[in-house]
């Protein structure tokens, strides 16, 4: 029987770190450390007798300032990235300074509604949280509530209020869900709304109707964003159960081509993992034991690595780990960590994560967690393993019989 196991295994690492690493979290500085100073810090505040430039002159200069675009193909080039961040920082500082000049001298200018939002976004990206908090609070007392700039300022204030619920552990899941839904209702256009819903949904029973409904809402609202694609991957897991599963790659150690279609007739575990994961060896040992137990039945594991790029020695670390621990199955090295295309397309946001593919090559189960071995046994037509409680009872009974004898 095909299925989605909704049981959350104790070995499954579930944290917002996966999304943070994947670049999906919007409210964490996304520019990789760009520092945007306030005009006051940069000595940009004009003296009292300074000449006030015409608004059009300020706007004309602003139009000439462009943030550099990141060449993703060079993202692992440290020298290039340093130059990119330096250029971005300089441009961001100038943009923020010019917008502040316009705001100071022409507080009723019609362009401020859009330009102040841009300033706040850049300041926040540069971790100038206090500046954003203070300026948006000032705006709310300075302008009529119906002006667009006030809605934008209120959104920032609400963002500051809600983000601690998702940045720190121990928050009541019900409170997170309540606040995420409120934020989404008030600011449906904001990508952060979908992000908060996604993070809140992770606390729900995996693949429950409520969780899937939230994922659909996210995909509908922001389909082309990182969080929208991640939610779409979760839905893909559900929709793909019972359908042919495809996976082709070159083994990271041997270079030999691997196609899951060649394993028809066997039960295959597609094992998403990473060598940097703290408890990885415990799970690898379980899978190796299963290979020993079910080799004659036709059992195979295929690893899908979420290790870092080659520039960050991800391939080297993967190969060393596999060799040192004598892991026998093929490994698909993606090289993109959480951003790797294949695993991201399936919504993988935690490791370990496994799919079970049946003897006909169909996706049978996603997220089997602690039920993995019994699912495999079921596909082989074997009786399920006794539950731990049953085993303890049997041991106690045998011990009692031994004492009685």
For this entry, give a set of tags.
405 residues, alpha/beta, Glutaredoxin, 2 domains, two-stranded antiparallel sheet, 49% helix
Describe the protein in words:
The protein is of the alpha/beta class. The chain has 2 domains: 55-237, no CATH class; 244-380, Glutaredoxin, CATH 3.40.30. It contains 15 helices and 8 strands. The protein has helices at residues 17-21, 55-64, 78-105, 112-125, 129-142, 148-167, 173-186, 191-201, 209-221, 226-240, 280-294, 314-324, 341-345, 372-379, 388-404, and strands spanning 3-4, 248-250, 257-259, 267-273, 299-305, 331-333, 353-357, 363-366. A 6-stranded mixed beta sheet has the order 1-8-7-4-5-6, sandwiched between helices. Strands 2-3 form a two-stranded antiparallel sheet. Strand 7 and strand 8 (363-366) form a beta hairpin. Helix 9 packs across helix 10 (226-240).
Write the layout of secondary structure elements.
Elements: E1 3-4, H1 17-21, H2 55-64, H3 78-105, H4 112-125, H5 129-142, H6 148-167, H7 173-186, H8 191-201, H9 209-221, H10 226-240, E2 248-250, E3 257-259, E4 267-273, H11 280-294, E5 299-305, H12 314-324, E6 331-333, H13 341-345, E7 353-357, E8 363-366, H14 372-379, H15 388-404
Helix pairs in contact: 2-3, 3-4, 4-5, 4-6, 5-6, 6-7, 7-8, 8-9, 9-10
């Amino acid at each position: 029987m095909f299925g989605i196991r909704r049981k959350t295994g104790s070995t499954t690492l579930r944290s917002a770190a996966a999304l943070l690493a994947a670049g999906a979290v919007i409210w964490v500085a996304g520019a990789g450390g760009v520092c945007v100073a306030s005009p006051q810090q940069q000595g940009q505040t004009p003296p009292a007798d300074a000449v006030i430039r015409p608004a059009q002159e300020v706007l004309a200069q602003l139009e000439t300032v462009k943030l550099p675009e990141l060449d993703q193909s060079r993202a692992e080039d440290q020298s290039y990235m340093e130059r990119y961040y330096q250029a971005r920082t300089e441009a961001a500082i100038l943009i923020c300074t010019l917008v502040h000049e316009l705001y100071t001298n022409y507080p009723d200018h019609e362009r401020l509604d859009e330009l102040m939002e841009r300033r706040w976004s850049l300041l926040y990206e540069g971790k100038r949280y206090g500046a954003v908090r203070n300026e948006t609070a000032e705006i709310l007392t300075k302008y009529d509530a119906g002006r667009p700039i006030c809605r934008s300022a209120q959104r920032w204030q609400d963002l500051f209020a809600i983000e601690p619920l998702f940045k720190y552990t121990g928050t009541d899941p019900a409170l997170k869900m309540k606040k995420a839904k409120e934020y989404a209702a008030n600011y449906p256009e904001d990508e952060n709304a979908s992000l908060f819903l996604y993070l809140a949904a992770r606390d729900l029973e995996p693949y429950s109707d409520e969780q899937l409904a939230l994922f659909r809402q996210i995909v509908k609202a922001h389909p082309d964003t990182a969080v929208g694609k991640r939610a779409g991957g979760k839905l893909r897991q559900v929709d793909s159960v019972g359908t042919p599963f495809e996976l082709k790659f070159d083994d990271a150690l041997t270079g030999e081509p691997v196609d899951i279609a060649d394993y028809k007739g066997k039960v295959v575990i597609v094992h998403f993992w990473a060598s940097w994961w703290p408890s990885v060896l415990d799970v690898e040992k379980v899978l190796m034991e299963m290979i020993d137990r079910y080799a004659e039945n036709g059992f195979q594991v295929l690893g899908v690595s979420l290790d870092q790029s080659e520039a960050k020695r991800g391939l080297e670390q993967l190969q060393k780990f596999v060799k040192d621990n004598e892991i026998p199955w093929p490994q698909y090295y993606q090289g993109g960590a959480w951003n790797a295309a294949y695993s991201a397309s399936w919504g993988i946001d935690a490791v370990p994560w496994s799919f079970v593919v049946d003897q006909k090559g169909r996706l049978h189960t996603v997220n089997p967690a602690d039920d993995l071995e019994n699912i495999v046994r079921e596909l082989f037509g074997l009786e399920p393993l006794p539950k731990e409680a049953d085993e303890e009872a049997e041991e106690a009974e045998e011990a009692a019989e031994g004492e009685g004898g």
